[in-house]
Design a protein that fits this description.
With 52 residues, the chain is mainly α. Helices cover 58% and strands 0% of the residues.
Length: 52
Amino acid sequence: MISGIAIALMLVSFAGIVGWAWSRQRERAFAEAAALALAPDDTVPPASEPRA
């Protein structure tokens, strides 16, 4: 009984996350994130401290 309720809650959570990710409100943010991979390196701020 408890495992069935847990599975149902996970299914509803998964469906909610998928719905949120594919919503029209997220389209602009995802387009901006996708464009970051193609942006020139000079638009990326340098790290605060160089790594050794």
